[in-house]
Design goal:
The chain is mainly alpha-helical and 195 residues long. It has nine helices and no strands.
């Protein structure tokens, strides 16, 4: 009896993955400077689809968060261009962050933690580690949703685009880095191989 094993999926470099997720946002900022919010929105939509295609080609899979985010970009970007109303693209970060926050905290409430799926096996934590990390990320996403609402409603479109590129990303990276001690404390170590 032979056992056929599925070929291992290619692993994408974490830096390349980050580049593919940040690239469309940087293009959004640059295109806004040259052509305004509607040109930027169109460029953002095309770049988002190109990044998803690159993720698929390189890793033969697309992670949940970029996929959900891309879906919202297509819907809200499409509404922005079709109705010529930039409120929709400004609402996109609010919707994505609120959705992720509610899903993470809701999953925890229903005893179905979703964060391990987001990390896709890159990290192995104790149950308590996942619980605390999920609460932190859930609250972070909700705070970012509120922050986006405050920013886009109180500043110019150009300032909001700059915040989305140069404020949102550093805040997210800083928050992610701040979780390292918690993750180290609750990391599950692989059992030593007997040989």
């Amino acid at each position: 009896m032979t056992h056929s094993t599925a070929p291992a999926r290619p692993k994408m470099s974490p830096w390349l993955k980050i580049g593919l997720e940040i690239g469309p946002l940087v293009l959004f900022f640059v295109a806004n400077g040259y052509g305004g919010i509607y040109v930027a929105t169109g460029a953002f939509m095309v770049a988002t689809l190109a990044a998803l295609a690159a993720m698929w080609v390189l890793a033969r899979r697309i992670a949940v968060m970029p996929l959900v985010s891309a879906l919202v970009v297509m819907v809200f970007g499409g509404l922005t261009l079709w109705l010529q109303d930039d409120h929709f693209i400004k609402l996109k970060p609010t919707m994505v962050n609120a959705l992720f926050g509610v899903l993470l905290l809701g999953g925890l409430y229903f005893k179905k933690p979703l964060l391990p799926y987001v990390f896709d096996g890159m990290v192995k934590l104790t149950e308590e580690g996942w619980r605390v990390l999920t609460i932190r990320w859930g609250v972070f996403f909700l705070v970012m949703a509120v922050l986006n609402e405050i920013v886009w409603r109180t500043v110019s479109t150009d300032t909001w685009v700059a915040f989305k590129t140069f404020g949102y990303l550093p805040l997210t990276f800083a928050f992610a880095m701040a979780q390292a001690p918690l993750m180290a404390r609750h990391e599950l170590k692989d059992a030593p191989q007997e040989g």
